[in-house]
Structures are given as structure tokens and as C-alpha cells.
Amino acid sequence: MNLHIRAITLDLDDTLWPFAPIGARVEHVLHDWLLANCPRTAERFPVDEMRRLREVINAEHPHLAHDFSTLRKLTLARAMDLAGDDPMHVEPAFEAFYAERNRVECYPDAIEALQRIAARVPIAAVTNGNADLRRIGLHSHFAFQLGAAQHGSSKPDPGIFQAACERLGEAPQHVLHVGDDIDLDVVGAARAGLRTCWIHRDDLHPQPTWPYQHVRPDLAFHTLDALADWLDAHSQTHAQDNVA
């Protein structure tokens, strides 16, 4: 396959780490914080009710669909106001939530693969989520992180991919976007002119099938270290061609 990859944009949730365990924990960690600090809010808005309130807030602010952190804070502010708690607690409540959101457990192959890939080409994180690579401790492997909240729109909008390419200083056809989501990552990046790699990990895609005929990923692997292997082999091939 004739791919001349000079940089990589990389999804985070469900590509470097599974998000489901995080999503299962964060709501309960937040509720425990509210029990200790805003008991009226915790009583009126247990986990399920807080989730329903968040859906209401999301529907009221469709222009903020790309900004999960702001929507979470707006939800907390509404809940505290309705329960009669002081809204000064919004920021510390969010901090309790956000600290847990950034407590991730990477897939077993992810960190070593990141190190190997970063030794070959620059990597930029492109994510719809609100993970913070600096808090997580992985920022040193990345040229930068571009989140949907920072950019102003989310994947699959082509603008976020193109903005990342501009910051990398590379034309889209020389940038490989790597991610797990078929529509947000692969189809979105392909429409923006990038080359694409679908990471279909077994915990999310036990029997992967590709649903589209009009667009297909340039590469597809079960793990990130398989992509690192491909880059190693691809780089060696190009080096031999240059010598020849």
C-alpha cells in the first residue's frame, strides 16, 4: 500500500484506553462528593436523576454539544440551584468528577506503541472527549492535543481534522488518523482528506465488519502496537527505496 505518512492524529477514548470503566465510575464519584458537600443536591439528584437533568441541559444548549465540560458544569449549577445548595460548589464538584475522568487504565499495548510511533512521526491527539493528557501523564508522547471544546466543533466535522493537519504542518493526505469509531474517526477523517486507520479492539468489535462500501479505512488493526509494527516495516521499506 502506497501510504506516505508524515504525521498521525490519534483518538483517545476507546483507542488508548477503554472508556466504559471510566463512565461507570465518574457518576458515582461525583455523587459521593455531593453527598459529603451538597447533601440536598445529592438527595434530589441521585445518579439516574442527575443523568436525566444532564440530558435536559444538553437539549437546552445544542450549541455546546462539543463541550462536555461546560455542559457538566451547567448541569451541576442547575441541580444545586434547584436543590437549594450554593452554586459556589460547582467548580470543586466538577474537579472531583474531572479527576476521576482522567484516571484511565490504558490498553496493555498502548503506551509502548505510543512510544514506538512517536519515535517515527509526530502524533497529535484529536478528541471529542474532555480527557487531559497532561493530567493522565501521556502528554510527552504528543505534539499537541486538540479537543472539540478547544476547536469549537467535534468529529466528524472536517474542520477539526484540517486544523490538526495545519498545526502539524502537513497536508491531509500525508496524515493518518487513527481511531476506533467508524463514523467519527474513519469516515470523518476520510472526508477531510486524511488517510485512516481503524483500531477495532476486541472489547468493542469482537467480530468486526465494515458497514460501508463508499469509504473504507486505509489500514485496520486490532491493536495499536500492530500499527506500530506497520510503521516500522513501512519506514524500513521507504529507507530501502531511498537507498536504491
Task: List the SSEs and their pairings.
Elements: E1 7-10, H1 20-37, H2 39-44, H3 47-60, H4 68-83, H5 90-101, H6 110-118, E2 123-127, H7 133-136, E3 144-147, H8 148-151, H9 158-168, E4 175-179, H10 182-191, E5 195-199, E6 219-221, H11 224-243
Parallel strand pairs: 1-2, 1-4, 2-3, 4-5, 5-6
Helix pairs in contact: 1-5, 3-4, 4-5, 6-11
Please state the CA-atom Rg, rounded to the nearest Å. Answer: 20 Å
Overall geometry comes to elongated
CATH topology group of the largest domain: Rossmann fold
User: How many distinct beta strands?
Assistant: 6
Through-space gap between termini: 19 Å
What's the pLDDT, averaged over the residues?
Answer: 94
InterPro entries: HAD-like_sf, HAD-SF_hydro_IA, HAD_sf, S-2-haloacid_dehalogenase
Keywords: Hydrolase
Organism: Noviluteimonas lactosilytica
Protein name: HAD family hydrolase
List keywords for this structure.
S-2-haloacid_dehalogenase, 244 residues, Four Helix Bundle (Hemerythrin (Met), subunit A), Rossmann fold, alpha/beta
Written account of the structure:
- The protein is α/β, with parallel strands linked by helices.
- It has two domains: 7-18 and 106-243, Rossmann fold (3-Layer(aba) Sandwich), CATH 3.40.50.1000; 20-101, Four Helix Bundle (Hemerythrin (Met), subunit A), CATH 1.20.120.
- Helix content is 51%, strand content 11%.
- It has eleven helices and six strands.
- It has helices at residues 20-37, 39-44, 47-60, 68-83, 90-101, 110-118, 133-136, 148-151, 158-168, 182-191, 224-243; strands spanning 7-10, 123-127, 144-147, 175-179, 195-199, 219-221.
- A six-stranded parallel beta sheet has the order 3-2-1-4-5-6, sandwiched between helices.
- Helix 7 links the parallel strand 2 and strand 3 (144-147).
- The longest helix has 20 residues, at 224-243.
- The protein is elongated and about 65 Å long.
